[in-house]
Amino acid sequence: MKNFKLIIALAIFTSIVSCNNKRTPQLQYMPDMYVSVAYDPNGAEGLNDAPVNIKPVAGTIPRGGFPSYDIPDTNEGYELSKTRTNPLEATEANLANGKAMYDIYCISCHGKSGDGNGVLSQREKFSGIPNYKDREITAGSIYHVIMHGKNLMGSHASQLTYKERWQIVQYVEKLRTDLAK
Amino acid sequence: MKSVGLHSRLNTLFIKSITVLFVFAFSISAYSQDVDEARQKEGKKLFKSLCASCHKLDKKLIGPALSGVEERRENDWLKAWIKNNAELRASGDAQANAIFDEYNGSNMTAFPQLSDQNIDDILYYTTVGEIKKVASAAEGVAVAGETSGGAPEWLIYILAAAIVVAFLMIASLLKQVNELKGNVAAGETSDIKRDLHELWVGVKQNTFLKVLSTIFLLLVGAYFVFGTIFKVGVDEGYQPIQPIAFSHKIHAGDNKIDCQYCHSSAKHSKTSGIPSVNVCMNCHKNISEVSDDTVVELEDGLVLGKEQLDLEIAKVYKAAGWDADNLEYTGETSPIKWTRVHNLPDFVYFNHSQHVTVGGLECQKCHGPVEEMDELYQYSPLTMGWCIDCHKETKVNLKGNEYYAKIHEDLAKKYNVDQVTIAQLGGKECGKCHY
């Protein structure tokens, strides 16, 4: 009888303790169904212990995608990029999505109006972010800088698609004209 | 007369030196008296707005550190360089071409709009640097030390001790009362045992009490059994220890960086994605240390200050293979092994882009106040009932979807509502998520 009571007390105690441990995941019933044999897109291990998320073969173009950017990240490349123009039509829809993307990826540093006074600038994490109107930039060079980055700005190519980059270009050009007024 | 004069001069020298010492003790720059603060301020303003994106005073960035640049170069040369460095290089200036080559031919922006006075102010700032007030800083430290110096902790201990003492006093009082009443029984120690035994015998004899206590025990048992079973596979509140003490509060809360800046695949794909290290480096190439008052509070009660947090940033550098001293990539990278927090079982299909881009949901709807979490935890249970509840309630915005306009209209008529919910559009079908 005494042992029985002890077991109940222990069971209650352990269940309470185990419920409160935040650091480990809960038990899974039939884990085979939770984790299938198929590889996860962000899985750590795939064939031969190589990460699943490895780069595609060089020169691969995704279906419906575009050839990779061909201008190198050099001073000459930057000058060359200035001659490129925006392949997208300047529509309202493109501009709207350009603004949506700008508000996610650019606004922290370049600020709402493109004057270089974003939150990170106000909080003095970054300083010296230029105002768009003070720089001689064209559609092609804006795209070039999104692709390769410039000075302290890093490349944002991995976070945006081809279309979104050109939509941002359109929006930045609009901001620049608004600033110059 | 002469000796008196000498004497007074000695006196003033003495007083002066004491004053200088005094000033030295309270301000970091001994020559702060000589600093033209207006010029320094003007130069600092210009420096911050024009130069700081590539130069720091004490550290190499894109370009060289500029502290004391006036001692290294001629003033005229500096002016020519700043106004139009390309022209200076084209003129065949050896110094200019040497520095250009040293920095791998990265182009410095030309600043023809700066006047000579502007440039002098900037150079003045690079020479005198920051004006710091040590006294106030020390004061700040003292105050900070006081507030973080365990004041609440010892208070809690004292309170706990007081409660224990109070209990002891009550217990001894009760004992004395008992003794005064003449209840000094022989079996003083087995009092509780005997009481329990009597209770046990009493319950055994009383059928009503027997049934009642059995029901009670069964209910308590059922509560714990079901409580345990229903937690199987439900990771609400799961908060694993991550390899880097990354704080969403600092990034998404204080610095207001959009969730999708880092989790950029949420808008187009099934998973929201854990950002690759190049995304970290977009900012951390420049930000190698946190500001002095940054604090991250971990769940274990651990508080990380600037010293530890700078080491956490160093972990990012190690993963990216970034040499923070020479500002270049070494090519030796190593993955950061983040622990996944939100993980749906593989027998459920869930797509982020459908919810984020098509549905236009805020991330916080499912992930909770992430911008307030120093350490991320799973906010929602992510159970099927939880999914279905939302699908039943949420009305679908069908604007701009002309292709299905007729079907949507018919559905609305069928259910006799203005706006159909996701469940009415088929969001409750098993095959939508389980296939």
User: CA-to-CA gap between the ends of chain A?
Assistant: 89 Å
Structural classification of chain B: mainly alpha
Number of strands of chain B: 4
How much of the sequence of chain B is in beta strands?
Answer: under 5%
What would you call the shape of chain A?
elongated
Number of helices of chain B: 21
Largest sheet of chain B at a glance?
2 strands, antiparallel
State the share of residues found in helices of chain A, binned by percent.
Answer: 40-55%
Write the layout of secondary structure elements.
The complex is a heterodimer of chains A (181) and B (435).
Chain A: H1 2-19, H2 31-34, H3 75-81, H4 92-105, H5 107-110, H6 119-122, H7 139-148, H8 162-180
Chain B: H1 2-26, H2 37-51, H3 69-72, H4 75-83, H5 85-90, H6 94-102, H7 116-128, H8 134-148, H9 151-180, H10 191-205, H11 207-229, H12 248-254, H13 259-262, H14 277-284, E1 296-297, E2 303-304, H15 306-320, E3 322-323, E4 328-329, H16 352-358, H17 364-367, H18 384-393, H19 405-415, H20 423-427, H21 430-433
Antiparallel strand pairs in B: 1-2, 3-4
How is this structure best described in words?
The complex is a heterodimer of chains A (181) and B (435). With 181 residues, chain A is mainly alpha-helical. Chain A contains eight helices and no strands. In chain A, helix 3 packs across helix 7 (139-148), helix 4 (92-105) crosses helix 8 (162-180) and helix 7 crosses helix 8. Chain A is elongated and about 85 Å long. Chain A starts with a helix and ends with a helix. In chain A, 24% of the residues are buried. The mean pLDDT of chain A is 84. Chain B is mainly α and 435 residues long. Chain B has five domains: 32-128, Orthogonal Bundle (Cytochrome Bc1 Complex, Chain D, domain 2); 150-184; 190-232; 248-380, no CATH class; 383-435, no CATH class. Chain B has helices at residues 2-26, 37-51, 69-72, 75-83, 85-90, 94-102, 116-128, 134-148, 151-180, 191-205, 207-229, 248-254, 259-262, 277-284, 306-320, 352-358, 364-367, 384-393, 405-415, 423-427, 430-433; strands at residues 296-297, 303-304, 322-323, 328-329. In chain B, the strands form two sheets. Chain B has a two-stranded antiparallel sheet. A two-stranded antiparallel sheet of chain B has the order 3-4. The longest helix of chain B has 30 residues, at 151-180. The radius of gyration of chain B is 36 Å and the shape is flat. Classes of the chains: A mainly alpha (181), B mainly alpha (435). The interface between A and B is large, with 49 and 57 residues.
